[in-house]
Amino acid sequence: MSTGVNSAQSAIDFVLQLWQQHQGAISRTLLASEADPAARQDLKQDVFLALHQAAERLQAAELPRAYLFRIVHNVTVDHIARAQRHKWQSLDEDTQQQLLEDCPSEQLGEQQQSLQLMRAVRRLSPANRQVILLAMEDLPAPEIADILQISHGAVRVRLNRAKTELMELMQDGR
User: Fold this and answer.
1) Which of the ends of the chain has fewer CB neighbours closer than 10 A, N or C?
2) Per residue in 39-50, pLDDT tens?
């Protein structure tokens, strides 16, 4: 009995360590998918709960980072589908601008660029958004293919399309 408890605790400790290692990447992925801070916090909790529920499978996974991002991807896709059904509204442009105005001036240009990038990423088609977010986290194409459960070739095609679409959106300033 204690071996099972120790095994479960070991898996939970593994998930906590994995969470800490990749918390920045998870947060950036969620930021690109959800503009509303409260909804993003709920989404983050949903991701953590899903990771906790999959702790033993995550610990046993051949590529735990890829498995982690697959879970993040699946929870995010479910969240987006729910949001579309309920037609939740994202943070409006005026509120985003107000948040930027409250920042120190030396960081303003950088934050405006980041905001423009996040807006552009949110406007990408879902398939392109998925692949570009994972690529932005420096995941190699084979891991992206595993996470999205598509071929390596499909990853390269989607990545090229996503980069092209993202560049166009950034140039348009939308």
Assistant:
1) N
2) 888 889 999 999
Q: How far apart are CA 35 and CA 39, in angstroms?
A: 8
Intra-chain end-to-end CA distance of the chain, in Å: 58
Specify the higher pLDDT residue, 9 or 3.
Answer: 9
Which pair of tokens denotes residue 61? 């996974």
- Which burial class, exposed, middle or buried, applies to 90 when counting CB atoms under 10 A from its CB (0-12, 13-18, 19+)? middle
Contact 136, 28 (CB under 8 A): yes
Contact 75, 43 (CB under 8 A): yes
Ranked by mean pLDDT, the top range of 74-83, 110-119, 146-155 is 146-155
76/121 Cα distance (integer angstroms): 14
Query: pLDDT value at position 116?
Result: 78
What is the C-alpha separation between 18 and 145, in angstroms, rounded?
20
Q: How many CA atoms lie within 13 A of 30 on its CB side?
A: 23
Any residues with CB less than 8 A from the CB of 26 and at least 6 apart, and which? 19, 44, 47, 68, 72
The pair of structure tokens assigned to 9 is: 């605790």
Say if residue 20 is exposed, middle or buried (CB neighbours under 10 Å; 0-12, 13-18, 19+). exposed
- Alpha carbon 86 to chain centroid distance? 21
Average pLDDT for 6-27? 88
